[in-house]
Sugar ABC transporter permease
Amino acid sequence: MATQSIQNTNVTTTRRPLNLPRQVGKWGAFAILLIFAVIWLLPIAWVLDTSFKPEGETTILPLTWLSSAFNIQAYISVLSSSDLPRWYFNSVFTSVIISAAVVLLASMASFSISRIPFKGRSVVFWLILCGLMIPGQVLLVPLFSLMQSFQMIDTYWGIILPQIFSPFAVFIFKQFFDGIPHEYEEAARMDGASPWRIYWQIWMPLARPAIATIAISTFVAAWNNFIWPFLVVTGTDMMTVPVGLATVQTSYGIRYAQIMASAILGGLPAVIVFVIFQRQIVAGLAGGLKD
């Protein structure tokens, strides 16, 4: 009996008291985030629902959420009345090239600033970061004049070149490279490795999370970019998906189902890429932003 009472006492004393304020705060934060998620998803759900409605139901008041009949005519009309496959190719081609160029140029610049000692490298880094404070709209006219002088209007080069410089990518790679131990570099130098070999065979494999983050975020940004392709492209064959769908939408009038269907088709690839690689994006940002 004495032994049993001692065991019961030990069990009683080892139980942790319930931290009620912490639990309330946790569930309160979850409820707030859930509310914001619903607010953010509500317009997307409305766009998706409207795209599957017959055109006649999109203007009937009062507006209803669910259609009386599931209808994909809006998607058929958008696909049949536009050069959407060609626009998809243009967007994929330019976005992939821009992503690869940003990763290569930003990683090379960051490696030189982080690992190659030279006078004024901190000044160079801060000058690059100053580019984050310059609105992109300010550069539209100078970039357009530059592309026009190079005769790159309505070409792939005209779309790609102004988008391959990213101060944000340089910052992420610089922070990631600063966190890599110097022992790797010293061991490689003792084996006679050149700076280029150290960069390509050691630093780049170690920076895979940062590479994934920059490549995916750049791809999504290039895919969704509307202003610059709209300015530099004049022919229908060179249009990207956002520009092409915008030109198609101008002819729809009040055909809201087709407008919503084109918006879904235009943003779907970027959403798929982000959903598939969201873990890599979070891991790369965590590695690049840590002290």
Notes: The chain has two domains: 19-75, 81-289. The two ends are 57 Å apart (CA to CA). DSSP finds 15 helices and no strands in the chain. The CA atoms of residues 133 and 167 lie 10 Å apart.
